[in-house]
Each structure stands twice: as structure tokens, then as C-alpha cells.
Amino acid sequence: MADRIERVEGRACVLRGDDIDTDRIIPARYLRCVTFDGLGEHAFEDDREQAKGDHPFDAERFDGAAVLVVGRNFGCGSSREHAPQALLRRGYRAFVGGSFAEIFFGNCTALGLPCVTLQPDDLATLMDSVEADPEQMVVVDLSQSTVRHRAGSLPASIPEGARDQLREGTWNATAVLLAAGDAIERCAGSLPYVSGFQR
Amino acid sequence: MAGRSLLDKVWDAHSVRELPGGQTQLFIGLHLIHEVTSPQAFAMLREMGLPVRFPERTVATVDHIIPTHDQKRPLADALAEQMMAALEKNTEQAGIRFYGTSSGKQGIVHVIGPELGLTQPGMTIACGDSHTSTHGAFGAVAFGIGTSQVRDVLATQCLTLARPRVRRIDVTGKLAAGVFAKDVILAIIRRLGVKGGVGYAYEYAGPVLEAMSMEERLTVCNMSIEGGARCGYANPDDTTFEYLRGREFVPAGDSWGRAVAWWRQQASDADARYDDRVELPGAEIAPSVTWGINPGQNIGVDEKLPRIADAADADRASLEEAYGYMGLEPGQSIAGTPIDVAFIGSCTNGRISDLREAARVARSGRVAPGVRTLVVPGSQAVARQAEQEGLPEVFRAAGFDWREAGCSMCLAMNPDKLVGREICASSSNRNFKGRQGSPTGRTLLMSPAMVAAAAIRGEVTDVRELL
Questions:
Q1: How many Å apart are CA A103 and CA B258, to the nearest integer?
Q2: I want to staple B354 with a disulfide (CB 3.0 to 4.6 A). Which of A16, A29, B30, B448 is the partner?
Q3: ipTM of the predicted structure?
């Protein structure tokens, strides 16, 4: 059983912009590896290079943040788990955004990293609040389905299945899937293509 | 009672059990793996002391890191060699079928699955690659997964998933001459947006889809994920079955008849219920080109680049970012944009019909001075077929560089990369910032015929002028 995740609490970092794809989060040249070690230092490497130091990941005021606040469709594109693995290795434990791409969301859930969404106005409020006061604590609360910051509590959404997995510590799904036992072989046996349509 | 969609039928047939929170434990009929997203999964499995549960239901090949110029072992890139060696060792230990470069069957995983007949209607298919949606062309429910989920499939042949909603997209009427499957999917993504498909499976249908060959349907389904839909499919029909007949992993003899009967039953019922429906007139689709930094930012080749003031408020920042990166101006024509590189290949457009269309255009001229080109067949089988048809000679005579099979400059994990701010006319699937190997490189997505036309003129060109 993995850890039960009821809430993630910490300082936050704001990364504005929609449709940030996983090639930007971790460029493909860093996928030439057989482990996920060392990916953290290369997160957003090309964006940071082009921003010449003016990127949130290089801003001292966001150092040590555990919550990443993002726009819409964050993590779109490639299925590379290297993207959330890189962000995890930089210390991020939760994501708050306008929306998340599906494969990225699934990868995060499998790593015990909640991705919750806010309504557009609430997201704008949170982004402004954190940028104005990056020292404040932000709490991503799965039991209450809220994101709390200094100025108040915002209603947050996360699909029920992922929320249950995180709260019950079943986000590392292997054990749950194995628990089905012979039902897996029974399902396989009921599919005619598994036996090559021999009957 | 309303009928059921293919998605519902396949989902129900593969449901091992319902899990709390509305999720399903879904049996995966075919698992495809490659060198990039599998080594960590095998390592996790070893750490947990678990065997591969159904080794015969996983098939491996090497595609992302493979050089297209010199494939001699050991590979010049030590990291690539390490990944290749890891895949060879992992598949051998687990008893998983592996198609390496000496097999004659190696290629991009989404090209070899269909051509070997591994991909079949009514299956669930998963692979650690977002373009797994490609296989939906056969009426399979196919989607990309991450490495932890690759581990889960290796260990249990199952995944924990929520059932998607289904949006049916009917492309009506007929396509005009010079308009290809690539233009159809670009038009769909332009209309519905790059996040419009999140939470949905796309069912592609209508007269245009029905008239398409399997290879054209593969191109359409391939880019479902670029519209946000993790999975996209076409219903299986006689075109599907004719393509499959006689392929290596397709049942033969008495089994063939039983297979076709079962495959036919998996198609959506005429009265199936959909969560959403969209119609797109095929005649309105033009040869299309992306101008920005996501595949939704595309226009017809005869159109002018959109003005920022015309965009919805929420989209303006994205447009400004795209123009800033691409160095293009609103209101400008996309036709006439000079290119530095032309890339023909990828899981989107690296099949034999794509190479034939590009070669048809290549016959009309020579590559413009200063344009670097790459023609990369999607698989060794595609390369052999092209050789039989004399296509490499056609390309070489026109000044194109003919290469060996792999993913190549679609994502530039091998030595094929853009340099600096080069602009590439590309038949691939993603125009993200830095996607083609240079952090500042620029990509214009289009059909293979349009890429060939751009190579010959040295600038973005309406291919209809050359056909």
C-alpha cells in the first residue's frame, strides 16, 4: 500500500500559459536514459534558457515550492512519464491548474501527485495571490476538495476515481490490479482473439 | 434501448471488474513497447519481484533512438546503445517478441503493429507512446500510457481507467483533389481545439472516412491525441478486413471467418448513443499548414495568418506566444514562407501511400538549393515496398535524402535534428517549441505531398499547383 494522500501543503510557484506540452517540460534529448535519475535539473531547460533567467523555475522567490500552479491543458502531447518524474524530482508534490491533459494526469496519479482544477476566476485569483506573496502556504486538500491560500478557500475538482486512489493509497495500481486474481485470466479467456479465433 | 458504440462494446468485453470511484480494471489485448518508455518499467517489475504475466501479449521494437543513416552496432550514441541493449535484454529475459533492426520487421511501433496484423478490430491496445491512438483506425480502443502504467500492464495485463465519453465526428461529402487525410485531421483539430477532446474518445465516421484506405484512417486516428482525445477510432468495415487478410498475425482458414464475424459485431450500432456529435463538410477542407506552436494553430494554405484581435480573449496570449516564437506576422500569407528543411516520415505519414504521394510531387522537379531533406520510411517493410516500386530512385533523382526506418526528426531523439532557428516543413504530428531537436527550431506540419512541394519550391506551396 502506498501513502494515503489527503492534502499537500507548501509554498507554490506560478507558471502561466496554456497548452504547455511535455516536450517543454522535459526535452526529448533527456529521454535518452534507462532510469529517471537526474531529470529534475533539466525541467523546462529550453524555456528557461530562452527566458534568460526570467522563468519562474529560476526565480528565487519560488525556491522550494511544492505546489505548481499552471494554466489550461498542462502536460499535453507526449506520454512521457519523464515529465512528472522531472517535476517530482524538483520537489513538486501537487499541481493546480485550469485543466490537465489526460495522459499527464494519469501519470501524475500513478506517482501520487494530485492534479486538481479550479474555475477560471479562482485560478486567476490564486495565481495573483501567490505571485504577490510567494511565502504563503497553499494547501491542496483532497478530503475537502479545496485549494486554500491566505485569502481564502477555493473549490477544486478532481475526478472521483483518482481522488479515491490518492486518498486510499491505491495510486500505485499494481497491487489493486493483481488482487483481481484469476478474473484476469477469465476475462482473457472470454475474448475470442486471445485464442486466435480457434473456436 | 439505444444501441452501443464500439467504445462501449470493447470496454465492456475487456472489463475485468469495476473499481471504486467509477473506474474499470481493463484487460489490455495488445501491449506494444519500445526502448524509451519501457526500461524503467522492467526495473520496477524486478524491484517488486513480479514476472511478466502475459509475455505473448506484448510485442517490442526499437524506433525512437534508432539512427536512420548508420545503424551499425554498437550505436555511435552511447546512451542510445544502452537503451537498445536494455530492451534486448529485458525482452529476452521475459520471453517477449522483439523486432530489432536485423529482423526485417523493425519500424515505428505504430507502423509495424498494423502491417504485421497485430492490430485488430475490437482489441484494447496500450503502448507507452501517445500516438497509440493510431491503432484505432482498425476499430480498436487504443491509447497511450506512461511508464508506471507500462509496469502495470507487464505485471497484470490490465490498467485502471475511467471510461471516456464518445464524440462522433462525421466528415461529410467528398474531399477535393490535393486534400489528404492529414488535412482532415488538422481541420478537425482546428475546429475542436487542442483540448477539445480531453475526456473523450473520438469516433471518426461519415462518407469521407468510409471512403478512406486503412493508411489514411491511420493518419487521422494518429493525431487524435493532438486534439486532446487520448483515443480515436474508425468503425471496422470491409476495407479493414481486406487490409488484414493474409497478414502474419491474422487468423487464417476457418478462424478467418469467425474473426470477421466477431470484428463486424464490434462496430457501433446504427442507433448508438453518443455524448456529443460534430459534423464537418469534407469539401470545405483545404491543404492545411500549421503556423504556430500547437497543431490546432493551422490554416488552409490559401489563407492568411489569423489576427490576434479576432481571437477569443482567453486565446490571445497563446497566439502572441506563437507569433513570437515562429517569427511570423498576423495577416501574412502562409504560402511563400521559406523553409530550410523538409521531413517526410513519422507514425503519422511514413507509410507506403504517403511515400507514393510525396514521390508523385518529387517527380515534378528538384529540391530547391539550400533545402535539406529527409525521407524516412516508417518501417523496414515500407522501405522494401518502396524499393520494389523504385521510389528511392525517384526521391534521389529529385535531390531528396533517402534514409532507413525510424521515428527520426519527428522528435529528434536520434541524430536527425534541426539546427538553430531552422524552419522545417514536416509530415509529422507536433509543432511544439523545440520538438525537432533544436530548442529554437520551428515546425510547419502538413501532408507529405505538401512537404515535397515545399522542398521543391523552397517555400510553403499549395501542392495543387504541382499536381
A1: 35
A2: B448
A3: 0.97
